[in-house]
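Could you join me in thinking about how sequence relates to backbone shape in a protein? To get us started, please write out a protein record for me. Would you write everything just below, so we can both look at the same thing?
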Amino acid sequence: QVQLVESGGGLVQPGGSLRLSCAASGFTLAYYAIGWFRQAPGKEREGVSCISGSSTYYADSVKGRFTISRDSAKKTVWLQMNSLAPEDTAVYYCAKSDYYYCSGYSEGRNFGSWGQGTQVTVSS
């Protein structure tokens, strides 16, 4: 069965960096888009980034600071997060699209399988 396991979250100071990992199993990673999402307390879930083939997409709030990448052979998707700010504090989730493309990722549509999430806290 499809399984997604996030890791790499933690506590970091403002301006710091973290790299999140999403280990995928139960499907062929190269055939599906993978998205990263986050949800802060009291806020709606937000689409952060998505990768489909060699195409990548980013929310305006993270563009230029976050980089998504993947290695299909290693069955892993990463989210490199630089210049972190307190407003980046949230639980971060990776999710598998039901399709090859990232369509609907900003709303979380078409993503049927989700990981358990990893907490990212940006604080001094």
User: Anything to note?
Assistant: The chain has no helices and eleven strands. The longest strand covers residues 18-25. The radius of gyration is 13 Å. The mean pLDDT is 96.
